[in-house]
Amino acid sequence: MSETTATFCANHPTVETSLRCNRCEKYICVKCAVKTPTGYRCKECVRSQQKVYETAEWVDYIPGFLVTAVLSGIASVGISFVGFIGFFGFFLSFIAAPFFAGLIAEAARFVTRRRRSRNLFISMAVAFALGALPLILFNLFFFDLFGLVFQGIYLFIGLPTFYYRLSGIQLGR
Q: Is 79 inside any structural domain?
């Protein structure tokens, strides 16, 4: 009979485990394990691998933010003009919002030279929402509920479309 020694998680010394990170061979428990297509890894190895893909530089934040905010403001005005069509404008706004968001995302990717970073994407998503803010405040000031509905449609559909298009997730491929 062979005697086995108990192994414990590197992060939780009271938890017994036999699972190892497939990159650094460190013992990890189920709470520390991250399932990847190639096996289980510790959170530190996953984090270090993700940093390799973050290529954005500090100079990318300024033009990305400005271009996104300005184009989102212009698109917000465009959505308002669609609202003047009437009931048919609701249907058009559901088509126009993701269309404008896709164009803005491509423009933002162009000015940032397709560099990637989660923080860059989040800052540009904030800029997208801030670009629509002046028209939202204008509609609030004049109690234009109809205009607020169209701006809500624009943000509700456009913002997630913008973020996922910007981050490179494309459906239908």
A: yes
Domain range enclosing 46: 1-52
Report whether 80 contacts 134 (CB < 8 A).
Answer: no
Joined tokens for residue 34: 């991250």
The residues facing 36 across adjacent strands are 39
Cβ atoms of 97 and 89 within 8 Å: the answer is: no
- pTM score, whole prediction: 0.70
Amino acid symbol at 7: T
Between the CA of residue 49 and those of 26, 46, 71, 85, 150, what are the distances in Å? Answer: 16, 5, 33, 50, 41
Element holding 158 (H helix, E strand): helix 145-166
Structure tokens at 53: 């893909």
Q: Are residue 107 and residue 92 in the same domain, yes or no?
A: yes
Dump pLDDT digits (tens) for 20-58: 999 899 999 999 898 888 889 998 888 777 666 777 888
Q: Which residues pair with 27 in a beta bridge?
A: 20
Taking the CB of residue 18, how many other CB atoms lie within 10 A of it? 9
Q: Which residues pair with 22 in a beta bridge?
A: none
